[in-house]
Amino acid sequence: MHFEEFATARSPALLRYATLLSHDPELARDLVQEVLTRALVKWRRIERVDEPYAYVRRMLTNEYLSWRRRRRVATVPLTGAHERAVEQRANPGDDLWNLLAELPRQQRVVLVLRYYEGLTDNEIADVMRCRASTVRAYASRALATLRVEITTETIRNYQEAQL
Amino acid sequence: MNTVDDLRRTLEDQAGRAPDERGLIEEARAGAARIRRRRRMTAAAGTAAAVLGSALVVPFAVSYESAPPIAPAAPSASATPAGPRRGSDLTVGLAPGNGLTVSAYLLGTSSQYLTAVRDDGMKYNLDVANPGTFGRDPIKGSVRVRVGDRDGWYLARPAPRWMYSKPTTEHLLTWETRDGFGVTFSSVSGKADLLATAQAIRFVRPAPPNGPLQLGWVPDGLVLTSVEVFNDRKTESILLSPPVKKSPENNGISVRAESASPGWLTRWTEGTPPTHTIAGYQAWYRKLPLSRDGAPHAILVVTAGDCGINIQVTGPTSFADLERLVGEATIGSCTSQDGWGPVVPQADGE
């Protein structure tokens, strides 16, 4: 697959994923741009793997985790932009989204991969290069913080991950 | 109390705030061009150091040549010197009669990569780094083995999960040939099989691989720096760039030949009529607005039989040059290997 084909087909999905991780569309775009740039440099290798999207998503996850560590710099919005930002925060009125923003980054990654990207805990462990039990611990803490009820579905996911 | 469905809905809703993807590819191209340029400059400095080093070493090494056969158990018959190579040259191959078929060649100025598939479907990867570009330290956890008359290193490790759908063990064999090429041969087939199959590796005289598009002429100031031929997919991609010493800018041409499917044609021509006829082939040429460094500023699309050729220009190459490049090329099939030949002429004196 040509890089352009991949990027055209997958950029929207990568941007959505990055937006959910970063809670910031501008940062999401920066993250995806950075990752696509590096993916293009090593595209010859990436295009040979079974699932290039999974590989690039993993690059994006790592980029997000290290970006946040490396470059967490407070920014001052311009006049007007600031007002719009305040409006945007108020508009969604979504407590869950605001709570998500407060989660530690690893916990947020786990939730987004599990409940948005639909990965199993074992697959998440592979993305994050940690044990599945660590993923479950992150998920458990995050769900408790978000006050998400543990249903039979959550338990089923847990059991699947054990397999 | 929230539910998992609430969480899913929230994520779905918020994903809709994702920004537009327009311009991302162009920005990625420009960024990649900057990275490659930095690497080329670093490599040029490294090569200069290596040349200086080899000038000191060669007098002691001459008595060993010709190039050694490569085999882990018993030396094989190949004794053809590898010699210097261009970015388009292949200096390694697999002996016939082993049930192995090369499915892809990926060649660059500093390395060669081959993927081979055996009759039973088992895949093997062969990565050969040019002299001076191979890390000599053994991979952590590897064990020493003999590769012909050379020391090599064998390693079994979990294969990256993104490469295989199931957890798998990857086996690697790596060694440095006497003339300095760094070889890494890998597969998931198992240690014994890997060592046995490695006996099929041969070093051959530098020559370009065969592909559907065979260039007969390239614009002045450009050299072929990268070739990718996928025998299985019947595609070929080549990159023509200025030599590093003359220009550090990424002002070259990328050419890709692949099957001209209806989808391909629509994607690249947008259903518009051809703008030109070149050597009897229908062609679409369009200039793009000047963008950042590394982004193409002209695209030429050509259909030739079942092949679609896409040429992207990031440098000063004129339409007349592109016309000549296509006019003097030989184009075979992109759905079979009919009419395939060396992607560029052999080097002088070969």
Automatic annotation (TrEMBL), chain A:
The keyword DNA damage does not apply. Coiled coil: none annotated. It comes from the Bacteria. Residues 10-72 form the RNA polymerase sigma-70 region domain. Residues 95-146 form the RNA polymerase sigma factor 70 region 4 type domain. Keywords: DNA-binding, Sigma factor, Transcription, Transcription regulation. Transmembrane segments: none annotated. Belongs to the sigma-70 factor family. ECF subfamily. This is RNA polymerase.
TrEMBL record, chain B:
Residues 1-20 are annotated as: Disordered. Keywords: Membrane, Transmembrane, Transmembrane helix. The chain crosses the membrane at residues 43-62. The keyword Membrane applies. This is Uncharacterized protein. It comes from Plantactinospora endophytica. The lineage of its organism: Bacteria, Bacillati, Actinomycetota, Actinomycetes, Micromonosporales.
